[in-house]
Structure formats: structure tokens, C-alpha cells
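C-alpha cells help. Consider this.
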Amino acid sequence: MDPGTITLSTLGGTCLLPALLLVLHLYLPGWAWSWVLDRRESAPSGFWIDRLLLAAKSVVLGVVLSLFAALALAVFGVFTPALEWSAVVLLAVVGWGMSRGRGGPWTARAKRGWPGACLLGLGLAGVLALPNRGEWIVGGWDPGIYVNEGVLISRTASYVPPRDPFFGSLGEGELAAFTRPVHNYTEAYPGVPLDVETRSFRHLFFPLTPTLVAVAHRCGGLRAAARVNELAGWMTLLVLAAAAGALSGRRSQSVFAALALLVQPVWLYHLHVPVSEMLQLLLIGGVGLLLASPGGAVPLALLLMASEMNRFSFLPFAGIFLLAAAWVDLRRDDRRTVARERALQVTALVAGAAVDYALSPVTIGRLGSVVAFLLAIFAALVAAAVGLDLWAVGRERRASLLAWSERWGVPVGVAVLFAAVIVAFIPAAEPRDVILWNARHLVPCEGWAFLAAAAAGLATTLRAGAGEPRAKRAFVLFLAACATVTAIKLDIATLWPWASRRHLEFTVPLLAILAGSAGGFAWDRGGVWRRWGAALAALVVALNARTAWAAWSRTEFNGASRAIAEIAAQVGPDDIVVADHFRWGTPLRFLHGRNVVNGELFHAAGGRARFAAALGTLERLRREGRRIRFLTSTEEKLAIYPVDVGPATADWTSEPFVFSEIAHHPRARGFTLREKEKVFTLFTWQSGP
């Protein structure tokens, strides 16, 4: 069976094999190369925490190596199963071979690594086995486009889509009736650019998340592809918990940070909404983990490159990280090594941006003047980080700067952060509205008790003489700066009324680490402090439970894969289908390879003349032997179009498709499910009007 035709339900009883394939693909190469991160600083010890750290490092390295290999194969058009798995095996074999004499006997490392592999595999199998986790495959919006792009890569074995049979059959004068100009490109379906020269589709989004979707689809079909955020979310839970423990040197903070992540509604909600920010959260957690693992200069650079390839907007935030890393490195005497590492990090980020330019020119073009602004901010921050490195070359100056930064570095960093907020508000006509908007939407969503726990964690992390490792304080300040920028940029935050996905990258890990710090601090002190810490954790869980459960359980478009697959089964490979809405037309085209026309262009405002022209083209194709079908999903059926289509025979009608959409509360106080019903009808067109 073509993997593109698999529905989510057909894989319900076979979750173990896809989970095993995902572990082999995303964990095995990282496990084989984990010896490069065996040097640890202030890492907590113990049987299970040691296994957790190894598992997290293996996940981080494995995801980056696997996605880089898959993307490289796809770019050259050879992303075949044979070459894909050959690359995975080759990465693992080379990693194991180079580890001889460096990471201890391979048998001992295998014994340390298998618990993490089992933990990861069981979690992934659980994600795939759960029913009704949402089926965001419909077109028109970012989540569905991510899934459709990734499945297309998997189906065609190439990052460059082939020439589209339908659009390729149109003359120069006919193309305008079936497309429309949007931003800087020609749109075939909402969110799907068409190259008018080659008549092939182009990807709208940056490459790494669609590549992860493609890998998931190869391992577990559409079920895994549609649940890519839950798969990435499980890996994120492992990585962020390990990062919290490694950064602090305390096992307790791993446990409390994991608990703090599990009760965050923003994170839980986006587990079933496929967007690039979940993979970005995994990568950012990995950055924190490697910041606490000296000796991982090359893996850290690769992780920064992956973060930039996944989201071009990461560039200025990466500059903030370089400053934080330079502050951490003030303790180091090996300044030449520090300089080489900084150069490697900057080079990796520039290379990631170059990949975005090469593979996502449409999106770069859409950003317009924003690109120059992001590059300028990045260049300024790189100069500041390099300047700090150069100033610290002299031993005496470095000792003086180190002593000063230990005493005043954090207060000055916080002051600069607040100054940046004030400056950012200057252009705003009503800065008070920006503050109130964020207070009204983010605070009710996260919960007052949870934010209070995070504030307590901030106090324990940054207080004078806290004894917290320098890497942790630097990472917290990095996340705080980035989260602040996200919060004050109202045009970013308002993209999602209830819970902005933009908060996934920095706000979610910041709050998890800080709340985990508060719980871990109380637990480690013992006595009455431990009881107060346990009580605070219980209070946070209790107060967030209702919203967290709603965020987890209320999913959208369940059953969509079966409904679309049933339509596809009625359509021949050479048929041309005019779909009355891009919701159904986009997955019919990309998941099942059918020839689809976006009929919404014809019954939207001003579509009368466009539809009349399109009917002439469709009549020509019909006379040339193509069967023309009309897919309707409304009670108006063919009457929805502004021009009578002429004789058409209704030859198939579906059972009612009942699905749910989320209705977000305007003040972020929750959301409800809104139920809808669709009946699909396929008509065969007999002749023109």
C-alpha cells in the first residue's frame, strides 16, 4: 500500500513497529556519537539520572544527524528508503567506530544506553497508540501545510516536487484562472506556492520540520506524520528534564522541571497542532543541555545550525545566546579554543541561514525588509560577543571582569532586559495595551500559581551567593531575554488568541526550568522546606489541572484522514477534481496524489469571471479525454458556484463526516469544541454550460 494512502486508523494496532523504526532513526545515530559529550560539568549522578542524561544527549544528536542526512538526500532527489536507512546505519557505524578508546568499552556504553532507548520507544509507541489525538491534515493553515509538505517529500523521495500534471497541462493564458498572486509568489492553494516556470510546487516553510514529518511518515505512515508534534514533545520532555538537571547539578530539578512542563497548557495544546515551534523547543532544550556539557563544541554548533534552519527568525535570538555563551566562557583559560568555538558557532548559524535562503526563497521573500533587520541585529550581537571574548584574552582583565560579573553581571543583565522592553515600547502608540494584552492572555493560560512558582525559581537561581552553576544562570537569562522579546512583540503574540505557539520556543522552557528550580531548591533543603515545596507543586498541579486537561484532550479534525482517503478511492489518478474548499483539496492532492483544483477561488468574492474562464479550460481537457469531477461539501452543492456548470452526474456521496474545531476564548480562559458535519459528494461533469 502506498504510504500516502494510509489513514490514521489503519495503524492503530501496529504502534510498536513504527516506534522501533523511529528509535532506530532518531536515537541510534546519536547514541553511537554520544561519546563526544562524555565530559560533564556538575552533572548529577545516580543510575537513572545518568541514563536520562545519556538518553537526552542521544536524542539531541540523533535528531540533528538524522534530519541533516534525510534533508541532504531529499535535496538531491534520492530520499529513497534504501539510501535513507543506509545513511542512518552508516552514521551509527562510523560513530561507534570512532568511539574506540574514547568512551569506554562499547559493551558498557550499550548497557548504559539501552534503558534510554526503551524509555524513548515506549513513549513513542504510547503516542502512536492513543486514540483521537487530532488529525491536522486539512489545508489552508500552517499545521496542515507542514504535514502535507512533509508527506509530499516522503512520497516523492525528493525535496523538489516534480512537475504537477494538472498545472503542467495549462497554457500560459489559462494558468491565471486557477491560481492567484499572493505576496511574492503565485499560489496554487493557500500556503502552497507554484513555480510558474517549472509548474511544480514549492515549499513555503523552512526545511527542518517538514523533513521531520517526512521521516515520521516513512517510519509510521500518516499516523506518525500527523502526530509529529507529540513525537517531538515526548523527546522534548526527556531533553528538557535532563537539561534542567545538568544545568543545576541536581537530580531533583530534573523531576520538578518535567512536572512543570507537563502542567503547561501552552505546551500540551500544541502537542496536537503540528508547527515548527515544537521541534524548535526540542532543539533549544538541547542547546541548554550541551551548554552544561563542555567538550561538545561541534555538536553545539550543529544544534545551532539546525535551530536556524528550522526557524530563520532564530537568528537574533542566537546572537543573544552567543553573548550568554561568552559570559559562561569567562572562566576558561584556553582562550584560543574559545575563539575557535565562537567562530564555529557563528559559522554554523550563517550556514543555517544560507540553507534557508537556498531552500526557502519564497518565505525569505515574504519576510522582505525584516530579513535585513534580523541580520543587522545578529551582526551587532555577534560583535558584542566577540568583543567580550577579546576583552577577556588578558588574564588580569579576565579575572577582573569575572569578579565584576559574578557580583553585578546578573543585575546588569536584568537591567538591560528591562531597558530593552522600555525601548521596544517607545514606537508603540499605546504601550499599556501591549502589556495588558499579554497579561490577559498568557497569565490566565499559564495560571497564577504556576507563574508564582516560576518567580520563586527565578529568585533562587539569580540570588547572590546562590551557588547555581554559571551555565544555568546564563541559559536562564538567555531564555528570559528571548521570552521578553516574544512577549512585547504584539504582532507575534496575537497570531493565536488563546495560546501563542511563539511562546513554545523560550517562554515554555524558561517557566519549566524556573518552576523546577523552586521545587528542587525546597526539596534539597529537606525538613519543612521539603513539605512546603511538595505543597506548592501539588497546588500548581491542582490549579492547572482543568486547563491542562482541556489543552491535552480537546483535539481537532479527528477522522479527517479516513474521510479524505474515502474520497481519494473514488477518484482516478488522471481525474481532475474541482474541490469546493482547500481544506479537503490540499490533502487530496499532497497525501494521495490526485489532480486537484482549488474551487474556493471560483465562489469567493470576484470569482465569477475566473470561473467562467476556468470552465473553458476544463471543457478543453474533458474533450482531450480527462474526466472532470466536482467535489462538494456544502448543502448548496454545485449551486455554490456563480456560473451554472452544466450537466453533471452525482455518482458518489459519503457518510456524514462529523468533526470538531476548537473555539478559543478571547481572553484565554479556556476553549470549547465546536462540532461540525460535512457530507461529501462527487459529481462527474458531462459538458460545459
Notes: The longest strand covers residues 657-664. The chain has a mean pLDDT of 87.
